[in-house]
C-alpha cells in the first residue's frame, strides 16, 4: 500500500516546453523588443498604439492556449509557476518602460493616441488571475479536504455586472473572455450536479454568444466546453427523472452540436447513458473491443479500466473478472512514475473506485458472508485513510448487507447470539463511518473516477487554419478537460 500513501512531492520535469515559455520568447524577440522600446520617441503614436495592442492580444492568445491545454497541471506546479513568474516579470518591466514614456508625453500634452493607463493595466491582469487560479487548483490537489474558494473578482455576480456593459471592447473584452475561460476551468475541476452550476454555465454561454466576443479566436472552444459541461448535468438530471424546463429546454438542439469534445461526449454516453438495451449493447461492444486488443493489462489506458469495471459490475456482473481488473490495476499503479499532483490524485481516486465496485458487487452475491465482506471493507478503510478519499457509498452498501444478515438471524428459530453481536457491533461502526463520509462528500464536488492528464486531452489537436496563433507556435495544442467523460458524485 506504500504506493498510495499520501501525496508525495511532484517530480521536476525541466524538459517540458510550455506555451508560456513561447509567449516569453515572442515578447522579447518580436513584441516589445529592446530596439522597439528604445525607439519609442521616434515612432508615430498610432504605430505605438497598434503595436502595443497587437502584442498584448498575442500574449492573451498564448495564455488561452496555456489554459485550454491544461499546462497548469501538465507539469509540476513549481515549473509552471516559474514560467508564469518569468513572463509576468519581463512583461511588467517592459510595460513600465512604455508607461513611463506615455506619462512623460501626457505631462507635456503631447500624447494623442498612445495606450491609456487602462490599457497598460489590463496587460498584466490576466497573469495575476491565472496564477491565483492555478495555485488554488494545486492546493486542492494536495489536500482533498480543502475547499476551493473562488476569487470574488471572478464570481458570477461580478461577471453579470461586467457584461451588463454594452460597450465592452479592446483589451477589456479580451480580459473578460479569459476570465470566462478561468471560470469554466473552475467548473470543470469542481463540477457538481446543481442548479447553481447549470445557471452559471447557461450565463457564461449566453455571454460568449455576445456579438462582442463572437469573433474572438477561442470563443467557439469555450462555447463547446460550456455545452458539454451543461450536457453532463442535464443528462444526470434526466436519468433521475427530474423534469427540465425553461431556458434549458431551448438548448437541447445546441447540445447536439458539440464539436471539440466529441470523443469525450461519446464515451460519456456509453459509460453513463440511461439503462437501456441500446446503451448496454454499446457497452458490450466496447468491452469486446478491449478484449480483442488483449484485454485489461497494466498497459491499458485508465478509460479501459473504467469500461471494464462498469461492464463486470453492471452489464454482465462477474466478481472473478472484477477481482482480476483490480489485480491488473494494482500492477499498473506500481509500475508508473507519476510526476504531477494531478496524476497522483487520479490514481488514488481510481484505486478507491476499483475497490468500491468490487465491494458493491460482493455484497450482492447470494453466498457472500460477513467474513467475506469484513476483510474487503477494512482494507477500504485503510485505503481511504491513506488516499484521503472518503466516499460514503460502499459503506451504505455494506450497512444494508449487514442489516439483512441481522434480520435473517432475528427471524431464525435458532438464533446465533454471538454472530448477532458481531454484526450489530460492525453495523454501528460502519454507520458511523457512513455518516461521516456522507458529510465529507456533501462538502465537496468530487469525481469517483479521474483520468490522468494524458487521457484528459483530446486525441486530435487544434488545427492551424481555425486558430491563427498556432501559426506562431512550436508546440501542438491538444484541448484539456479535467473532468473528461466522467461525472462527479451524485448528492441526491
Characterize this entry briefly.
This protein is mostly helical and 492 residues long. The protein contains 18 helices and no strands. Helices cover 63% and strands 0% of the residues.
Overall description:
It is a single chain. With 492 residues, this protein is mainly α. Helix content is 63%, strand content 0%. The chain has helices at residues 19-31, 34-38, 45-68, 71-74, 77-107, 117-142, 156-163, 170-189, 195-208, 219-239, 262-272, 277-292, 302-315, 319-335, 341-364, 370-387, 393-411, 417-443.
Count of DSSP-assigned helices? 18
> C-alpha Rg, in Å?
26 Å
**Overall SS class:** mainly alpha
Look at the structure and give the mean pLDDT: 86
Distance between the termini: 33 Å
Strand count? 0
Shape: elongated
> What proportion strand?
under 5%
Major sheet attributes: none
pLDDT < 50 stretches: 152-167
Helix content: 55-70%
SSE succession: HHHHHHHHHHHHHHHHHH
Q: What are the SSEs and their pairings?
A:
Blueprint: H1 19-31, H2 34-38, H3 45-68, H4 71-74, H5 77-107, H6 117-142, H7 156-163, H8 170-189, H9 195-208, H10 219-239, H11 262-272, H12 277-292, H13 302-315, H14 319-335, H15 341-364, H16 370-387, H17 393-411, H18 417-443
Helix pairs in contact: 1-3, 1-5, 3-6, 3-8, 5-6, 6-8, 8-9, 8-10, 9-10, 12-13, 13-14, 14-15, 15-16, 15-17, 17-18
Amino acid at each position: 500500500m506504500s504506493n498510495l500513501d499520501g501525496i508525495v512531492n511532484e517530480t521536476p520535469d525541466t524538459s517540458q516546453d510550455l506555451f508560456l515559455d513561447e509567449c516569453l520568447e515572442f515578447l522579447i524577440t518580436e513584441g516589445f523588443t529592446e530596439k522597439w522600446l528604445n525607439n519609442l520617441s521616434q515612432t508615430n503614436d498610432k504605430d505605438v498604439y497598434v503595436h502595443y495592442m497587437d502584442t498584448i492580444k498575442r500574449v492573451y492568445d498564448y495564455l488561452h492556449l496555456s489554459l485550454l491545454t491544461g499546462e497548469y497541471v501538465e507539469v509540476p506546479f513549481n515549473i509552471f509557476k516559474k514560467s508564469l513568474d518569468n513572463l509576468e516579470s519581463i512583461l511588467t518591466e517592459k510595460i513600465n518602460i512604455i508607461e513611463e514614456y506615455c506619462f512623460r508625453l501626457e505631462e507635456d500634452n503631447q500624447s494623442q493616441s498612445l495606450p491609456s493607463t487602462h490599457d497598460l493595466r489590463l496587460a498584466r491582469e490576466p497573469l495575476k488571475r491565472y496564477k491565483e487560479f492555478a495555485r488554488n487548483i494545486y492546493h486542492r490537489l494536495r489536500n482533498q479536504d480543502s475547499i476551493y474558494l473562488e476569487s470574488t473578482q471572478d464570481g458570477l455576480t461580478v461577471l453579470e455586472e461586467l457584461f451588463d456593459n454594452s460597450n465592452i471592447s479592446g483589451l477589456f473584452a479580451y480580459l473578460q473572455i479569459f476570465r470566462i475561460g478561468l471560470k469554466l476551468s473552475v467548473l470543470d475541476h469542481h463540477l457538481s450536479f446543481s442548479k447553481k452550476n447549470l445557471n452559471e454555465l447557461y450565463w457564461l454561454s449566453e455571454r460568449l454568444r455576445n456579438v462582442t466576443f463572437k469573433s474572438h479566436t477561442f470563443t467557439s472552444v469555450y462555447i463547446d466546453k460550456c455545452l458539454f459541461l451543461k450536457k453532463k448535468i442535464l443528462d444526470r438530471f434526466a436519468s433521475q427523472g427530474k423534469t427540465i424546463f425553461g431556458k434549458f429546454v431551448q438548448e437541447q438542439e445546441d447540445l447536439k452540436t458539440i464539436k471539440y469534445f466529441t470523443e469525450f461526449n461519446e464515451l460519456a454516453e456509453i459509460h453513463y447513458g440511461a439503462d437501456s438495451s441500446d446503451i448496454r449493447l454499446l457497452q458490450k461492444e466496447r468491452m469486446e473491443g478491449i478484449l480483442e486488443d488483449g484485454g485489461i493489462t497494466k498497459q491499458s489506458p485508465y478509460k479501459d479500466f473504467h469500461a471494464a469495471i462498469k461492464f463486470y459490475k453492471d452489464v454482465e456482473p462477474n466478481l472473478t473478472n472484477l477481482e482480476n481488473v483490480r489485480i491488473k490495476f494494482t500492477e499498473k499503479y506500481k509500475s508508473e512514475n507519476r510526476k504531477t499532483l494531478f496524476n497522483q490524485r487520479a490514481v488514488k481516486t481510481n484505486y478507491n473506485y476499483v475497490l468500491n465496485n468490487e465491494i458493491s458487487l460482493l455484497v450482492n452475491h447470494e453466498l457472500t458472508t460477513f467474513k467475506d465482506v469484513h476483510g474487503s471493507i477494512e482494507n477500504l478503510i485503510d485505503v481511504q485513510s491513506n488516499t484521503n478519499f472518503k466516499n460514503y457509498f460502499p459503506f451504505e452498501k455494506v450497512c444494508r448487507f449487514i442489516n439483512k444478515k441481522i434480520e435473517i438471524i432475528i427471524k431464525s428459530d435458532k438464533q446465533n447470539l454471538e454472530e448477532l453481536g458481531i454484526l450489530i457491533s460492525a453495523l454501528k461502526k460502519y454507520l458511523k463511518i457512513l455518516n461521516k463520509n456522507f458529510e465529507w462528500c456533501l462538502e465537496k464536488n468530487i469525481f469517483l473516477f479521474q483520468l490522468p492528464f494524458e487521457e484528459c486531452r483530446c486525441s486530435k489537436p487544434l488545427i492551424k487554419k481555425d486558430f491563427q496563433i498556432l501559426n506562431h507556435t512550436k508546440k501542438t495544442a491538444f484541448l484539456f478537460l479535467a473532468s473528461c467523460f466522467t461525472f462527479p458524485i451524485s448528492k441526491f
